[in-house]
Structure formats: C-alpha cells, structure tokens
C-alpha cells in the first residue's frame, strides 16, 4: 500500500482501492446480531461450538443452515454449512467456504502456499494468514472426516471436481 493509502498506480485494477483502507472505506464492519430463532446452541447469544468450529449460528434453528465464523481472509469472514440431499435422497452437507481459499485444492492440501502479494500488508491475500491457515485446516478436516460434505469456494473454477464452471 502506498503512503497515501492507495494500493498502486495500476489504473487497470478492477477494485476501488479505497475499500481496502479502513480509514477511507465506507463499508461498515459489524458483527452479526444474535439470532432469536436458534435454540439448539447453548450460549446466550446463540453462537456456539459446532464440531471443530468454535463459533457457529444455527440460522433457522432447525439444524439445516449454519453460519460459521471463518477468520483469516478478512475481518468478519463467515462461511455457511447447509444440509441437503443427493439425487438418491442420501443426506449431504455443502460447506460454502466463500473467500476462505480460492482453489478447491486447499481442501486436500491445506498447507499449500498462499502465494505472494507484495503490496498486501500481510504479504498474501489473507489479512491474517495464521488464522486463515487454521480455518483451512478445519474445513479440510471436516471434508476428510465426513464423505457426505462437499466444499465450495467462492472463486474456484470447480468444486472438488464435482461441478465445473465456465467463464
């Protein structure tokens, strides 16, 4: 980041560099409010432990859709765990990983390098690389320990080889 708070002189960038600078950003970062619909989690604010994840919210209160605290990429980063069924009626889970990683290969290789982004304060795409790595390990363990779980990342060109997306 340059001294004046802007990312670079690259005018071809698709991003407004002001969104990355907290002093210039107009995007409010707020914690999600507690849900009154959730009854299955023990804590007062209804965010509680879900398996290997420290904080999750049973959004509808019926165990079908969980918001999962997924720190590392950006402040307030969350994912979702959704209950569904296969075509054959078998129970399945889809973990919507969002920006936790940008290639489905991280599910199978959680120690893969993030890559270098010299202009980023952390040196990579994640604000907190250590927390991001821990989140990736948890998602990888979830997938490895439960074959009914499928993982989708926001920017991946495929989802674990199950679905291919074209641009």
TrEMBL record:
Keywords, comma-separated and alphabetical: Hydrolase, Metal-binding, Zinc
Family membership: Belongs to the metallo-beta-lactamase superfamily.
A single MF term (Gene Ontology): metal ion binding
Names of the cofactor(s): Zn(2+)
Protein name (database record): Metallo-beta-lactamase domain-containing protein
InterPro entries: MBL_superfamily_lactonases (IPR051013), RibonucZ/Hydroxyglut_hydro (IPR036866)
High-level lineage: Eukaryota, Fungi, Dikarya, Ascomycota, Pezizomycotina
Organism in which the protein naturally occurs: Aspergillus arachidicola
Superkingdom as given in the UniProt entry: Eukaryota
């Amino acid at each position: 980041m340059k001294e004046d708070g802007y990312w670079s002189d690259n005018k071809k960038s698709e991003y407004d560099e002001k969104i990355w600078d907290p002093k210039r950003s107009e995007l409010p970062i707020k914690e999600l409010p507690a849900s009154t619909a959730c009854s299955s989690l023990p804590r007062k604010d209804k965010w509680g432990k879900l398996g290997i994840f420290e904080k999750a919210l049973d959004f509808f209160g019926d165990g079908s859709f969980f918001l999962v605290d997924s720190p590392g990429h950006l402040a307030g980063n969350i994912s979702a765990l959704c209950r569904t069924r296969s075509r054959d009626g078998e129970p399945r889970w889809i973990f919507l990983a969002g920006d936790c990683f940008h290639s489905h290969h991280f599910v199978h290789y959680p120690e893969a390098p993030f890559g270098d982004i010299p202009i980023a304060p952390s040196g990579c795409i994640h604000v907190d690389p250590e927390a991001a790595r821990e989140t990736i390990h948890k998602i990888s363990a979830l997938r490895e320990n439960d074959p009914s779980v499928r993982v989708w990342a926001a920017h991946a060109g495929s989802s674990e080889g199950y679905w291919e997306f074209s641009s």
